[in-house]
Amino acid sequence: MTAAPVEPASRLSIRLLDGFRLDYGHQQVHVVPAARRLLALLALRESPVSRTVAAALLWPEATARRAAACLRSSLWRLAKPAGPLVETAEDTLRLGPGVEVDFRRACVLVARAAAPGPPPDASAVALFKADLLPGWDQPWVATEQDWWRQARLRALEALSERFRSCGDHLRAHQAALAAVHSDPLRESAHRTLVELHIADGNPAQALRQYASYRSLLRAELGLSPSPEMNRLVQPLLGGAR
Prior knowledge:
Blueprint: E1 12-15, E2 21-24, E3 27-29, H1 33-44, E4 49-50, H2 51-58, H3 64-77, E5 86-89, E6 92-95, E7 100-101, H4 102-113, H5 123-129, H6 139-165, H7 169-182, H8 187-199, H9 203-221, H10 227-240
Parallel strand pairs: 1-7
Antiparallel strand pairs: 1-2, 2-3, 4-6, 5-6
Helix pairs in contact: 2-3, 4-6, 6-7, 6-8, 7-8, 8-9, 9-10
Pfam family, one: BTAD
InterPro entries: AfsR-DnrI-RedD_regulator, BTAD, TPR-like_helical_dom_sf, WH-like_DNA-bd_sf
Protein name: Bacterial transcriptional activator domain-containing protein
């Protein structure tokens, strides 16, 4: 007898954006902290990870023997609601092929944001707003967090420009605002917003955005906006006199 296919609602999924969560369909699965870290490590790395590397990264202060024992314990503790979460092959580990990861989907959308063809839909902006595993401070997570922080900002700016070129200024503003909220000191994000206000025929709003950024930059870093930013608003300042 052939087994019935697994319905989409019964799939395993791991969320890394806005915090860790393991779901089986619509039900959250409890995972102990050590096993949670193991799943997060494997979810961040699509290629197989050797047991030795995984143990060393997850338990850096333990001896090699102790770290290996902790890894075995974590694997044993993992819940298996619909088949193995982790596949083992020789001395390597990887997530099971049916496990969906939101971060991997977000990375695909990041690549699409600036690529030729139709831009991702508006749901991409919501994904790009989210932090990667907030509150996690392990070194192996920090590298990925730094990459994601920059990648999502570039993607939001690219999306804003593409929405604008398509005449969708509402979504263009949403993407640019998301970039500003993610990094309030990022000039390119503020510049994108100023350009949008100018294109919409709202010079006063453009000047308010510029003034807000200038004040924040001066208060936080003691710096002034770049010549490029100043040149952008100079015609507006001249018109206001």
